[in-house]
Amino acid sequence: MTIDEAPARRSAITGLARRLRTALGPDAVIDDHQRLRTYECDGLAHYKVTPALVVLPADATGVVTTVRACAEAGVPFVARGSGTGLSGGALPHADGVLIVTSRLRRIVEIDPANQRAVVEPGVINLDITRAAGADGYYYAPDPSSQQICSIGGNLAENSGGAHCLKYGFTTNHVTGAEFVAPDGEVVRLGGKAPDATGYDLLGAIVGSEGTLGVVTEVTVRLVRLPEAVRTLLAGFPGTDDAGAATSAVIGAGVVPAAMEMMDALAIEAAEAAVRCGYPAGAGAVLIVELDGPAAEVDAQFAEVERHCRAHGAFEIRIAADDAERASFWRGRKSAFAAVGRISPDYIVQDGVIPRTVLAEVLHRIAELSRDTGIRVANVFHAGDGNLHPLVLFDDSVPGEAERAEEVSGAILDLCIEHGGSITGEHGVGSDKAKFMPRMFTEADLDTMQLLRCAFDPDGLANPGKVFPTPRLCGEVPGRHKGAHPLQDAGIAEVF
Amino acid sequence: MTIDEAPARRSAITGLARRLRTALGPDAVIDDHQRLRTYECDGLAHYKVTPALVVLPADATGVVTTVRACAEAGVPFVARGSGTGLSGGALPHADGVLIVTSRLRRIVEIDPANQRAVVEPGVINLDITRAAGADGYYYAPDPSSQQICSIGGNLAENSGGAHCLKYGFTTNHVTGAEFVAPDGEVVRLGGKAPDATGYDLLGAIVGSEGTLGVVTEVTVRLVRLPEAVRTLLAGFPGTDDAGAATSAVIGAGVVPAAMEMMDALAIEAAEAAVRCGYPAGAGAVLIVELDGPAAEVDAQFAEVERHCRAHGAFEIRIAADDAERASFWRGRKSAFAAVGRISPDYIVQDGVIPRTVLAEVLHRIAELSRDTGIRVANVFHAGDGNLHPLVLFDDSVPGEAERAEEVSGAILDLCIEHGGSITGEHGVGSDKAKFMPRMFTEADLDTMQLLRCAFDPDGLANPGKVFPTPRLCGEVPGRHKGAHPLQDAGIAEVF
């Protein structure tokens, strides 16, 4: 932003605040600087931007009113659910409006006969499961943050979770949405049917990280609660063995509900934090959960156990009851936070590789770690090759943060090099836009831009996210000034 | 087309023919009128248009050359696989090029470790299964035409099949594609990973019926061959009972691989054609197939049998071996053709309703039939509410074809009225474009058009399909003349 533009932008925001306060009520609009700072980041806490205005609409109409007002004023907007995202997808825009959906928490309908729930975007992921439980159903995708993350945020980021190995990602569970395009037009996409007629725009909206518009209602699939759940914890000498066991299980045609791996450093952190009591001396553990009809689970369980033993598991425990099952998961679920016990700072990375190169990539990560002196703990969804390396560092040691960020980036390069992807379930957001050209050609990115510009020619919906460089959409010459939007938005990077 | 434009169009085609013959070889280009007529329709045989030119590229480069040449000449193009589609999606354009993919039949890679196959678009659906079988895998979506239909056509129409109840449609099995946009640019969408980074453009391409471009390579998921398959044939007094049994089975959380229903008239036709020996006196039969681990199949089988008995099944047969299993399926698979034994002409309809209103909608169809004197046989995917009413008529009786078409349209209205859709798996194509406004609002259709125009501003990719009225994409004023493109293309409707 140049100095000359600042007064015009401020005046646009002042006008918007007045207009939206009248339309939505005084409580729905925040423009006090101290209160605005509450919203300066999402789960990717090292990027911080204070928004110009925060709006908390009480219903879908309020969202439409806000988007229309932004469109008319030419002011950018960013949608935010619970703010738990790990890629900075909900990072505010310094000259824009942050539309917070946390008041849109109505469960519109639980329809067990058609196995669907219709909810507002601010509804918490786990609350859908709670509402459907009485009828014997649940909502399958389970990000680690499922107790606090919103379904709208899940849709925007196409969130995954431990049980997505068997059940699929958010995109496999959203069958319909009411959607507000950046010009304020309201569109219905899909519905309760498994697959809609016409272009699958719903599929393109899921995972678009708020760059195409805002959803105001979501229809999701409900899954029948399984008859039986069995959970196994296996200790291995190292990640090679655990990786080979993973490949063997999947190769045998067994698809566990979840198949999670932790390496020695991650186990150490978890033990320090929650005393999970994993097999002593394990270089890696696997948590394998099977669910389904009891007869199926029993048959598959024997097969999983056999493959674990054949690939060097020296201790296998089977959860006798829900309490023991929870104790297996406690170490895994606490792992991200637990590394705080063994390192003052860390980066949560998210990359994907084919299962078949698991051992090789883990070796290369270990080499990187040795060469740089930066420790890396690995906790991840082994079954679908979705790595979550935790890159540990101490920000008080000069230069260590930069080295950690280099290691983190080099891990993504390893993923790409091995035929994988720069994100499995956390999204591109603010954090990984710069990595997109390593994975996609110019023609690929231009083609994505076709969709962006079709929906959002003025670049108002979550600008600066996903794409590495701002591109002009033909019709709006001079709209973007060519500066990197993150710089333009005045981001304070901690690193 | 006005008289004045005809010479210009003819000259454009002549130039294209010359250019493509030089580039692709003489055998790859057909412009002889008699030979062109071979391609005048697809599986929807009552719409016929002779294309101006047919091109049969030998490889992906040939497809790119053809699309680029069309773009430069401003000539429309239509892609065609095996021509088995039932909605006229591959109906040629009278002034356009038909790009036939039948020479692109290379299976590039079978990758069992990652459970993927990479194939050219002309590869026959069943040939993927044949190629993967040695490794214990198969390709799950199984249209009735799977012995002859191509994977490119399956992708374009997002084809279904009897076993898509459990395994999902084509869109759930395509993870990557190489795609030629209407301007000739080649883009890679997705890959072998379960879910790609960036916008899900691949999802939008699947089911876009050739209106966004042409695929030249497809990566599909391979599914492990099941350990056990069990098939049950149940005779019911009528469709109400069979429908209630269907709802009960699904409601109990059992998802059979397939769950198919035939009514009395469909059974009569099948008996006349293939003597399938279904239970005598049945007003409806259900074929239920379970697959998976043997232990699971056995447990679920008992449950299915129980629900069938509870809802009035008077005879239940269990296939003792593959031969008996094939005999159960013979009646179902022959049903479409079999109605030729009991009626000189028929329309195959394709609509979707929530399972929960199955009985009601079948009653309403029966009423329609009674009121109009037009017989309707029902053969369908009961498990996912995908109806295939066969509307019978005699074209030699004046007015009967029109009445049949009215009944067929009224059935779609019933589907929409009950919260369903105008197509489950056959696509919109030429046949159902006129029904789109009954299902979608103006804003919904405009939003789909955003995508169309982003990819194909000149309207060259399969024009006249899917959308009810041609719309101008801002930048190309006067391109379409405002006439309905089907009329414009000189369609001869049999009805």
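qc> Chain B has 16 helices and 22 strands.
qc> done
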